[in-house]
Amino acid sequence: MTLTFITNYMTHHQLPFCDELYSLLGEDFRFLATNRMEDERIKMGWGAELRDLPYALFYDDDYDLSHKLVKESDVVICGGTHHSYIEERLVLHRLTFRYFERLYKDGRIKALIPSSYRLMKREHAAYNNDPVYLLCAGAYVAADFDMFSGYRDKKFRFGYFPEFVKEDTEKLFGSKSDNVTEIMWSGRMLDWKHPGAAVYTAEYLKQRGIPFRMTVIGEGECRERIDAAVSAKDLSDLVTVLDFEKPFEIRKRMEKSDIYLMTSDQKEGWGAVVNEAMNSGCAVVASHAAGAVPYLIKHGENGLVYKSGDLRELASLTAKLCRDSALRKKLGMAAYKTIEQEWNPKIAAERLTVMSEKLLKDPETDIASVYSDGPMSAAEALTVAKGYRYIR
User: Fold this and answer.
1) Where are the alpha helices (DSSP H) in the chain?
2) In this predicted structure, what is the pLDDT of residue 175?
């Protein structure tokens, strides 16, 4: 089976998944990037040098080969790149997976704009009777596409799959504190990621005399406000604010942290820091609106979920964890197991290839009967408005 993955650019969140596909398929797997990465993301360590990868190339470095791969491969995954790259393939009714985050991160009302509705209907609903499927990079993706009947009964749970680090769990949890709880937040400091929620939580904990240390890492439009808030609230002895660090440095900090705060709203299509923090054995306290959360976290079992925007609930749940080291360890261990046993790049690649082989052999395969949960299981329609109750 030949498989080609075409998308805008390679990130460190996609690289492990692609490495696993190459491990499974060898030279029958190719990755095509249609764009060069923005400087800001390169600074964050998100880029991967394609010329160092035996299976990867830029689309325009060899147009004839790239076009041939997209047109003739048995299977194509098409991520964040223009519809025109796969249009010829779709006309030929060849097995294709579209790979999308949410369409309506700013509100589903946009789906009702006539021009937008017609465009989406034409691009995504026209192939409902063809072997074209949707990989949902987030729990709220399926509902967006249901607005115009796209990929009817052909949507899979999927996401992004950062590197899985096999840990000695005894050593991992032995390095975490039982006394002063280490709390972490990291990411681009944008309004919709709500880094200020971490500062609010720190102030809440301090007012109640709960021992903790917090590390906040990132840069962006909110950075000056975060620095000012930490100073104004007299939190400088408890909260350390740092500039961007490389992904491997972030992971090392996660491994030493007890709690990870994920505070993004519905504009966070996925949120790969949740995967990484869970892999690092953190007890994650996460906003329900981030796309990864309903797929990865079962409230009270492998993490805690608060209603997006409810800072009081976020702080209260964090305080609960600070007071209960046994609960932190229980949730952190279950979080690690979730990534180890299900949501990791190896399992995602294996399941995608198995499903592809089944669909190539029998296009009438009932996709819901193959996997009941995790990557490549059938994705149900879930809206952000109902997501909190669904998780809780």
Assistant:
1) 15-25, 39-43, 63-72, 87-91, 114-120, 141-146, 169-174, 196-207, 223-232, 247-256, 272-279, 293-296, 311-323, 325-341, 345-361, 384-391
2) 87
Q: Can you read off the two tokens belonging to residue 387? A: 């997501």
Residue 109 has a pLDDT of: 81
Contacts for 346 with CB less than 8 Å, ≥ 6 apart = 20, 164
Amino acid 323: pLDDT: 96
The predicted structure's pLDDT at residue 44 = 53
Residue 182 near residue 213 (C-beta atoms within 8 A) = yes
In SS3 terms, 165-188 reads as CCCCHHHHHHCCCCCCEEEEEECC
- Among 251, 181, 267, smallest CA distance to 217 is for 251
The pLDDT value given to residue 37: 62
Q: Which fold has domain 3-162+343-382?
A: Rossmann fold (3.40.50)
Q: pTM, whole model, 2 decimals?
A: 0.94
The pLDDT tens digits for 249-300 are: 999 999 999 999 999 999 999 999 999 999 999 999 999 999 999 999 999 9
Distance CA(287)–CA(314), nearest Å, equals 8
User: Which fold would CATH assign to domain 169-341?
Assistant: Rossmann fold (3.40.50)
Question: pLDDT below 70 — which residues of the chain?
Answer: 37-49, 51
Compute φ and ψ for 268, nearest 5 degrees: -85, 100
Cβ 262 vs Cβ 287: under 8 Å: yes
User: For the chain, what are the domain ranges?
Assistant: 3-162+343-382, 169-341
Report the C-alpha gap between 361 and 195 in whole angstroms: 48
Query: Which residue, 300, 256, 289, 295, is CA-closest to 275?
Result: 295
DSSP sequence for 46-109: -B--GGGSTTEEEGGGSHHHHHHHHHH-SEEEE-SS-GGGTHHHHHTT--EEEEE--S-TT-GG
> Which stretch of DSSP H or E encloses residue 4?
strand 3-7
- Separation of CA 145 from chain center: 18
What confidence score (pLDDT) does residue 80 get? Answer: 86
